[in-house]
Structure formats: C-alpha cells, structure tokens
Design goal:
By secondary structure, this protein is of the alpha+beta class. The chain is 21% helix and 31% strand. It has two helices and five strands; from the N terminus they run βαββαββ.
Length: 106
C-alpha cells in the first residue's frame, strides 16, 4: 500500500453541503493517519462511530480503485450512504489539501 493510502481527511457539516460551497462555513474535520485518529473537532453532532465507518470504507475503496478519492456521503442514525466517488488526480504523493482553508496542508 502506497503512502497516500495511509491518510484520510473527513470533513462534515450538518445539513446540505451547500453550506460549505455557498455560505463558506468551515466544516468539522477529522484526520486519520496510519489508521489512527490524530485530529477531531472539540464538538460535533456526528457520532465518532460513523466517522470510523467512513474512514475504514474510504481506505478500502481507495485501495480497491488504486487512486486517492474524493467521496461524498450522507448518514441517518448509523447507516451511511455513498453519494459520489471521484478520483483525485491533482495532488502529488505527499501533499494533502482540505476545503476547510485554502492551501491548508495536512
């Protein structure tokens, strides 16, 4: 497994994603590296169990497809639904960027 498969950034907002795109709201962010949770928000309305499911599924899908991925999802109670999957083709092997802040490297 390449190094890029070992990083996962999960960003969340309550409600619709247009809050990020149109209203500029900063999402909550979780960062996983090498399977360990390194960063999480102080307060979040999303259960950490859901975030763990998303991180595990993200890693599985990235390995299966063989490329870094941008995944969109929704959840209700403890069920996660995948809405969209896109390969990320614009990052190099070591730089990871977030929608949270422009040029925010993790």
């Amino acid at each position: 497994m390449g190094e890029r498969h070992l990083h996962c950034i999960i960003e969340t907002v309550s409600g619709r994603s247009e809050k990020i795109l149109q209203k500029g709201i900063d999402p909550d962010r979780w960062i996983y590296r090498w399977g360990k949770l390194l960063e999480k928000p102080e307060k979040s309305r999303i259960n950490e169990k859901i975030i763990s499911k998303i991180a595990a599924a993200s890693k599985y899908l990235e390995v299966k497809i063989g490329s870094p991925l941008d995944l969109e999802w929704v959840y209700y109670n403890d069920q996660v639904w995948w809405i969209q999957l896109r390969e990320i083709t614009t990052i190099d092997e070591h730089d990871f960027f977030s929608n949270k802040l422009i040029n925010n490297r993790c």
